[in-house]
């Protein structure tokens, strides 16, 4: 399966079911009254982190995700069924962004959830609108539309240790030697085209290692392959800088400084992360390693082929990982709960008046505009909400076009009356 770490998806909550307009029918009870049931709520789209998923490939290939609508209400006060939520599994470590880039959720741990699009409320049946003065309401609510949104998903692998180095530095050989990972290994640069994860077990401790494609100078500006995958070491507690002493086209004594600069340009916090310098291929470059020790006195020299130095490397990695785990707070998921106090807005729009307010848009969307009684009730709702007053204050005149949500009306202002249709019910 291809490794895909970004996807743009459209999520659509299910609409609520329509309320029912029905009247009780029974012999010898000519005035049985209204008995239309409510519609069921629509299903929500929920993103859930699950370890069984390791890539965003499925969502990239099928970006439209929708939940089912609720069942319609029926006579005899039978309510429609609530639709099931649509559960979408994503890899742990998936960050969710709005279209403008705002982070709204970070599903860092197994079973973390984010409601990406809520389902709409079911419409009320006509039995709900019966009052002492309105005994036979012949209207009901339509179901509320579900929420819709475009979201950008970005996967950041959950690894304890990140391997960073130039192409052909020996990262893939190392991860293959110390874990069960099977990356592609060859003696030419850019063998690794996508990140590899390996689980290392040593004694009673296990940790996850991430091997990302090799960096090149200018990677933070988009050169080479590794810049696309730097985000996958952003959660690592420890970085291993792998230096290849046999490289002929670089000054190996400056490798770590160059790599640090690339990390800092991508994310300043990465340059401050705890790290170890690892001199690879020690069996083929003994003289070069002795020279490099002047620059990297605390470096560990290893050979992933012969196994030289691996025990010492793992011992120091385990100590660093355990120290970080003990000091760092538990990793927590993040879900942004947004409470936006919304004000009623009336603006001019192409020769008409546009009313923007969720409450008014919801009222219009849930009204059956083909039913005269329902339209009369909507008019009284909008008056009680202050929409008519706001339109008059903005300069609207009788006969002007008013747009609310996806509907347009002729403005016919009138004062609220006392006939019981003010929808307190």
SS-derived structural category: alpha/beta
Cα-based radius of gyration, to the nearest Å: 31 Å
CATH architecture of the largest domain: 3-Layer(aba) Sandwich
CATH class of the largest domain: Alpha Beta
What value does the average pLDDT take?
86
Q: Outline the biggest β-sheet.
A: 6 strands, mixed
The tally of helices reads: 9
CATH superfamily of the largest domain: P-loop containing nucleotide triphosphate hydrolases
Shape: elongated
Number of domains: 3
What share of residues is helical?
Answer: 10-25%
Number of strands: 19
Q: What is the topology, as strand order, of the major beta sheet? A: 3-1-8-5-6-15
Question: What order do the SSEs take from the amino end to the carboxyl end, as H and E?
Answer: EEHEEEEEEEHEEEHHEHEHEEEHHHEE
Uncertain stretches of 5 or more adjacent residues:
188-192, 416-425
Q: Quote the beta fraction.
A: 15-25%
Q: Distance N terminus to C terminus?
A: 55 Å
CATH fold-level assignment of the largest domain: Rossmann fold
Main attributes of the structure:
425 residues, alpha/beta, Spo0b-associated Gtp-binding Protein, Chain: A, Rossmann fold, GMP Synthetase, Chain A, domain 3, 3 domains, six-stranded mixed β-sheet, 9 helices, elongated, disordered C terminus
Please outline what is shown here:
The chain has 425 residues and is α/β, with parallel strands linked by helices. Helix content is 20%, strand content 22%.
